Amino acid sequence: MSPSQPATPCAGRSTGSWPSAAPHRLPRGGSCRRGRPARRQLAARFEAVEQLLAAREVWPLLDEILLPLRVLEDRRLAPFLDELLPKLTGCLPRLLFTGEGEEAQRARRWAARGLPRVEGDNLAHLELLRGCGAEVTAGPGLSCFSGPAALALQGMGAVRATLSPEVQAAEIAQFPQTVFLRALGYGRLPVMNLRACPLQNRGGCAACRRTGGVVDRTGRLFPLLCQGGWSQLLNCLPLDMGDRRDALALADSELLWFTVEAPGEIAPTIRRYAAGQRSTPQGRYTRGLYFRAV
Q1: Does residue 108 sit in helix, strand or coil?
Q2: Distance between alpha carbon 104 and the CA centroid of its chain, in Å?
Q3: Measured between alpha carbons, how far is 164 from 167 in angstroms, rounded to an integer?
Q4: Nearest to 163 by CA among 290, 48, 67
Q5: Between the CA of residue 132 and those of 116, 127, 249, what are the distances in Å?
Q6: To bridge 26 with a disulfide, which of 32, 59, 267, 282 should be the other Cys (CB 3.0-4.6 Å)?
Q7: Phi then psi for 39, rounded to 5 degrees?
Q8: Residue range 38-48, pLDDT digits in tens
């Protein structure tokens, strides 16, 4: 479902109602301000099984590992599932044009096998995953950009939420303590979702090696991440908060999002953040909107 479409009941549901939620109001004064968590967690999202397997030596450093649900079914992961399962969050695709019922069934199958969390990345997913047997979390596409937004997502069943990339670092203090928040510490931010992939012009999907991107007039490459049926255009530079981690100290978890990184780049980045100290970013990077007003 495209985020621009009006909210409609999910396919396969006999009832056409969304879960109701009472109005969410933050308490007045400073009582809603967050404090630092007792221990900040470290989470990492991988888009490809090769990336995850290449980082096996640093799995113990991670509290949460996010993977697309379809990647969980890769046979190469089978020998490691007992080790991985307690940390896993299975993620639905950001966009679903068809097959919503199949994704819901996949989530239920994995929840029955012990998957602790599933993540939705648009409002349709929260209803789709309702009652699947695993905890539901809210991805970055759900625009968790304020305290009331976080409470609304919580009211719709999300037990944790990833902050919107539009949130400024100073605004994290205004989120209520009751909502478990992930803050993106590293990763290429999505710029655009594309139904028609520009790389199709090179010979179609059958001949695509799933590498490449769009070059702007200044010569900067914006990578394309194939999601099977649609693509994400990613920023030309990765967000890296390695030397400004104090700005995200009020979030419960730092999220490292690996998209088009080579497998060999991933473990060093995880070690850098797991050390719990300020670290100098490698190469060119951006701060996103953490210190810039929209």
Answers
A1: helix
A2: 18
A3: 6
A4: 290
A5: 11, 10, 32
A6: 32
A7: -145, 120
A8: 999 999 999 99
Closest by CA position to 182, among listed 40, 47, 33: 40
Q: Which two tokens stand for residue 193?
A: 């979702």
Which are the contacts of 39, defined by CB distance < 8 A and separation ≥ 6? none
Q: In whole angstroms, give the CA distance from residue 85 to residue 116.
A: 8
Distance CA 231, CA 69 (A): 17
CB atoms inside a 10 Å sphere around CB 211: 10
Tokens (6 digits) for 94: 């950001």
d(CA 59, CA 117): 17
Q: Which residues pair with 160 in a beta bridge?
A: 137, 180
Task: Tell me: pLDDT of 3 over 80.
Answer: no
Q: In the chain, which residue ranges form alpha helices assigned H by DSSP?
A: 49-54, 69-72, 81-84, 100-112, 123-128, 147-155, 263-274
